[in-house]
Amino acid sequence: MPISIVVPQLGESVAEGTVSKWLKAQGDKVRKEEPLVEIQTDKINVEIPSPGDGILERILVAEGTTVLVGTEIAVLSGAGEPAAPAPSLAAAPAVASAAAPPSQPARAGAPAVASPALRPAPSTGDGSSGNGELQVGDGRSLSPAVRRIMREQNVSLAELAAIRGSGVAGRVTRDDLLEYLQSRTAAPARASAAAAVAPPAPAAPPPAFLAPRLAPAAAGPREEVVPFSKVRKLIAENMVRAKHTAAHTHCFDETDMSAIVGLKREWGPKLEAQGVRLTYMPFFIKASVLALKEFPWVNGEVRGDTMVVKKFYNIGMAVGRDEKGLIVPNLKDCDRKNLVQLAAEVNDLAARARADRLKPDEIQGGTFSITNAGVYGAINSSPVINVPEVAILGVHKIVERPVIRDGQIVARPMMNASIGFDHRVVDGELAVKFLRRVCELLERPELLWFHA
Amino acid sequence: MILSACHLGPTPYREALALQEGLVSARASGTTGDWLLYPDHSPVLTIGRGGNPESLIADAATLKGRGIELFEVARGGDVTWHGPGQLVGYLIADLSRHGRDLHRFLRDLEQSLIDALAAFGVAGERVAGRTGVWVEGEKIASIGVAVRRWVSYHGFALNVAPDLGFFDLIHPCGLRGIHMTSLARRLEEKAPTLAEARERVAVAVAAAMGYEGLAWKDPAQARRLAEEAAGESGPRAEAHAG
């Protein structure tokens, strides 16, 4: 009888565990009480011993995967059982007699072996036997995951018996069951859809705007449960901590990007020829660093009851990575780098952030951050501070907009800029002046030359 | 039940690991009670099962040059440092006495350390989702536990007066900049000595974790128990074969 290895109950508030290390490989012989696998939850790593003698038939959950308590993670074949489900010669007569017509009496001595296969499912309500193993009529045992899905989706044992199991000895696995459920829900949906499009009377078609615009519901469950990845957990923690500790306030300004757009247009191709792609980010960094030098409190950190003002300028830039999750690596000592160096580093850092190739110190020790929601099309945003920093600059899409210059309406590439700041330590006056200065430096980059 | 506490004195990390494993066997088979072991480690880095190589800043050559050994161990958590000035405590405890509830065990262990810190006038606190003890946002004690046959080993490390510069070799526990602190940094000349901290923490562990008392034992006794358990069981797999 295969034994299902599940993540055991590890405490009242412990809902999940991460498979940290398999101590045995698939196909290994294991003995009762021998350590099989390590599961980690929070800061505790637990060795799970084997519940019996046997062979580790199949590992179902890879190392590093987080699963709910009760999830089946491996299957152990029982002691003395053949590893392969192929029937042995000794089992053959039992099969033969089970298939024989009922009028022909089973051979004496054999019925005890033969009849269980034909006997209907136990009538103990949910069908679970005393030892917690649920069995189908033909003796296939079910994992807790399968049992749970059966309960939730009202799958009868009769239905289950009809599913061809792909697991050990024909066991119905979780995947088999989910696949079955998809076809089960899909079939009635198709039937009712057919009924709906076949009205008995050929009435005039309803106006187009009344026709349902939604495509027919896709087969399968309507919700998907996706456990948080480690990165997602950290993002969630950091965001909540930021919102709980910093007194978030935002203010907004706008800047005429004509000069920067011109510089980029002129220098972009030249740098490209040297292998450096020029984006707007290096300009934002340059302007920020000079403004931070003029307003040092914005380049700081709250530590307990103190404000730590930093004399170095490690500028973080938020990098979106789709489902991998936001990360904010920072460029070190931006005050000591020229625009071309910054451009090269921005590209390198962003590429490595997306490839998960950042070094740990590149995501620590930032002093101020910039987030560019404009790359996704936003024209304004109120960003969350990258705590323990005290401010973050939001830059956005550059849009041609009509503005008044010398009494004339002219089109100019305009950009909204925003700042999220911690009002505990950065007053509104300071934030507004800082943001205005950043905008001014972008409008008139020659100021960088005069002041930096 | 009485908690047996024991100051092992200078102990190489590998030896402390073997000692713990022996005592875990002894505890699981019921030949001894719960133990709190205090080793004095020379500088060592250990990586738990939650660790990844990127948490290490220093390269192998740097570590070797500074005489720091690196171990991968079966406890929970990421990378951490142990060494002089730090109170390292290994708790060999039967979790069945703690309701086989891992989180409750961690929270009780944190409470012990918070209570001990309070006795020195330092307000330690928990940070949700970040096991350990923190003082004003800085980490003062780390916790990482392993469990075998429902017996815990490994434990905690409280920074009494270590050279916090060692933590620059690693990223303790995660992605973001974690500032480490110590009793010496918080209290300066009023900080307790390691010996004072050792006694205070033992009392706090015994109280917060529901022991009836605390008894200081000779390290030789712990070593003998561990050796006997290791000797009679041989490979772990045999321990319960009969």
UniProtKB/TrEMBL annotation, chain B:
InterPro entries: aa-tRNA-synth_II/BPL/LPL (IPR045864), BPL_LPL_catalytic (IPR004143), Octanoyltransferase (IPR000544), Octanoyltransferase_CS (IPR020605). Residues 30-213 form the BPL/LPL catalytic domain. This is Octanoyltransferase. It is found in: Cytoplasm. Substrate binds at R75, G76, G77, D78, V79, T80, W81, H82, S142, I143, G144, G155, F156, A157. It is an enzyme of class 2 (transferase). Keywords: Acyltransferase, Cytoplasm, Transferase. One of its GO terms (molecular function) is lipoyl(octanoyl) transferase activity. The keyword Transferase applies. Catalyzes the transfer of endogenously produced octanoic acid from octanoyl-acyl-carrier-protein onto the lipoyl domains of lipoate-dependent enzymes. Lipoyl-ACP can also act as a substrate although octanoyl-ACP is likely to be the physiological substrate. GO terms for biological process: protein lipoylation. One of its GO terms (cellular component) is cytoplasm. Its EC number is 2.3.1.181. The record marks K139 as: Lowers pKa of active site Cys.
